[in-house]
Amino acid sequence: GQVVLVNFWATWCGPCKEEMPSLARLQKDYAEKPFKVVPISVDRLEDGAAAKDFLKTHGALGFYNDPHYDVVFSLNPRPAGIPTTIIYDRQGRERARLSGGADWSTAQAKKVMDVVLAEKG
């Protein structure tokens, strides 16, 4: 029943780290809506603690780790690279996908979220 923005990222990825503050702001701005940002780190298991610590500096985001790319490889089509962001509607359908970093605090990004949140069934 939620709109979900899934972001595949890693601590070794510069654009990934750059966009994390704006993803955290987006989560905070939409905290009262049926919306969730799910950042999925593809860092190795031994680097998971560093990835988790990095996310803690941005507050509103939870930590999820996919060190063996199980989630990444299960998607069709697979993400073209890291970072990749996929937006799912309330029914779990993919509505948008972006490969590469982005500023998720822009009016354009919020308009995309608002459109997907406003969709009915």
Report the β-strand fraction as a percent range: 15-25%
Contiguous helical run count:
4
Kindly state the number of beta strands. Answer: 5
Rounded mean pLDDT score: 94
Helix content: 25-40%
CA radius of gyration: 14 Å
* N→C terminal distance: 10 Å
Order of strands across the main sheet: 3-2-1-4-5
Q: What structural class results from the helix and strand content?
A: alpha/beta
* N-to-C order of helices and strands: EHEHEHEEH
Main sheet summary: 5 strands, mixed
Task: Give the overall shape, derived from the CA principal axes.
Answer: globular
Structural commentary:
By secondary structure, this protein is an alpha/beta fold. The protein is 35% helix and 22% strand. The protein contains four helices and five strands; from the N terminus they run E-H-E-H-E-H-E-E-H. The protein has helices spanning 14-29, 48-56, 70-74, 107-118; strands spanning 3-9, 35-41, 64-65, 84-88, 94-99. A five-stranded mixed β-sheet has the order 3-2-1-4-5. The protein starts with a strand and ends with a helix.
Explain the layout of strands and helices.
Blueprint: E1 3-9, H1 14-29, E2 35-41, H2 48-56, E3 64-65, H3 70-74, E4 84-88, E5 94-99, H4 107-118
Parallel strand pairs: 1-2, 2-3
Antiparallel strand pairs: 1-4, 4-5
Notable characteristics:
single chain; 121 residues; alpha/beta; 5-stranded mixed beta sheet; 5 strands; globular
Brief write-up:
35% of the residues lie in helices and 22% in strands. The chain is of the alpha/beta class. It is globular, with a radius of gyration of 14 Å.
